[in-house]
Amino acid sequence: MRTVQALVVAGVGINCEEETAAAYRLAGATARTVHLESILRGDIKLDAFDVVHLPGGFSFGDDLGGGRVLANRIRTRKLPGGTTMGDGLRAVARHGGMVIGFCNGFQALVELGLVPDVGGEGAAEAALMQNASGKYEDRWVRVRADAECPARVWAGLEEWELPVRHGQGRLVFRDVSLRDEIARLHLNGLTYCDEAGRPTDRYPANPNGAELACAALCDPSGRILGVMPHPEAYLSLFNHYDWPRLRRERPERSEEGAGLVLFQNVVKAVLAA
Hints:
The protein is of the alpha/beta class. The protein has a single domain, classed as Class I glutamine amidotransferase (GATase) domain (Rossmann fold, 3-Layer(aba) Sandwich), CATH 3.40.50. It has eight helices and eleven strands. The strands form two sheets. Strands 2-1-3-4-11-10-9-6-7 form a nine-stranded mixed beta sheet. Strands 5-8 form a two-stranded antiparallel sheet. The two termini are about 15 Å apart.
């Protein structure tokens, strides 16, 4: 069996690259952490990788909107061959790989028009706005996965908890018809939910007020995926804020965190392509 090659983008304020690279290695992939400028100079070729991951952090400080400056750099900076990094990301997905962004990386994917891209034109169809709470949210939330989502990465993750760390996570869509189409296609693969497991727009279960209670969004192919919470921060059961109780209730519980399961599923999805 071949080894999945993952590229994790670093630099310019991104600060979750080490956890993200560690997650891919624990999931059985080979991970290489590369500064954004090395890609934009053409020193690193995206087509050498199966997964390209934009991690969480505060790219360019977020001062001009989450992920906006990063997205503009990816969209407009010409590589030596005349293409852009944005072109390269689309090619990775088109050839059976995956492009993934967490938190700030999700913001960049939305700004680039890579998700949800229902119209297939690469135009921005959504935006990530300031949290409806008006404050930065740094805590754990409950989420629920949709098994019908075209991003086939949710196996074993029907309902779980993840940490959020963002001030601009409120996903809003261009119009009602687009929102309805996203729901019909099951592109909102992960939703914030209440204690009963029901998707909710109510605070604090929904930490930001996102439409469709959306915590993760993919394109129709399922090969490009953005996630607002931080799966890379839950690689071990012992990362969980209440792990002693979880172990007491189920002593046989795996020591793997639910976030690691997501990375394992990404590796499986790439190998199955």
